[in-house]
Design brief:
single chain; Creatine Amidinohydrolase; four-stranded antiparallel beta sheet; 4 helices; 15 strands; globular
Amino acid sequence: MNFFTDLLPSVSFSPALRVKAGKRIEIKSASEIETMRSAAKIVATVLKEISEMTQAGMTTADLDDYAEKRIRGLGATPSFKGYHGFPASICASINNEVVHGIPRKRKVIKSGDLVKIDTGAYYEGFHGDSCVTILVGQVKPAAQKLAEAAEEALYAGIDQVKPGNTLLDIAGAIEDSIKANKFTVVEDFTGHGVGRNLHEEPSVFNFRTNRAPNVTLQPGMTLAIEPILNEGTKHTRTLSDRWTVVTLDRSLSAQWEHTVLVTETGYEILSDRTQL
């Protein structure tokens, strides 16, 4: 998730708020990368557990309470809570909610729901950031296809991460993957650099564009890559709570995200849940 400059679309955190993005892209040292591994592992652990425990009848507030206690229990603090006023430790967005859904006690999860859980952990000065899409109970084939296409797009983008490649290599691979599956790319939000700050340069777009510099990747860069795609229109709107973003036509939306390190030879997925 990310906040943007006035000239760029809002990245995933809040479309309602803007900050000026700096131009410097941080290259992390070996010790800083090791700390980021720990931060991202905490995020991966919490998201894996939430993915396994989420079921119909629970509320999104239940998941938020669990995430906050678990993040703190692992020695970190929730990156999102209080960030520019966001009131929770996770973003919980269901079905046609695209991003930034606020967990609530009255928001009950039902069988067939497509639930996006995005969270971050701040550990010893560095952030990890990741998002999963959870299919609850018996979902319609179209919802499953959308969720799978979002994950496929994420890994298509990650596969382009290596020194010498560019941000547009990532963006193009994500865009091509989404369009091949006949879904639409949400253009209002993008990925971002992550590290000492939750949202850093560069902006990591999910479609080919000239709206930002086409940065060449270097070892030590850390990126939050997060394709967001819709079943119908790409257009979105923000609800009156000034956080929750929904699809304009009420169609389903899906998102996956990983914190990724550019290595000397390629990439390392720091928030990889499969390695836990």
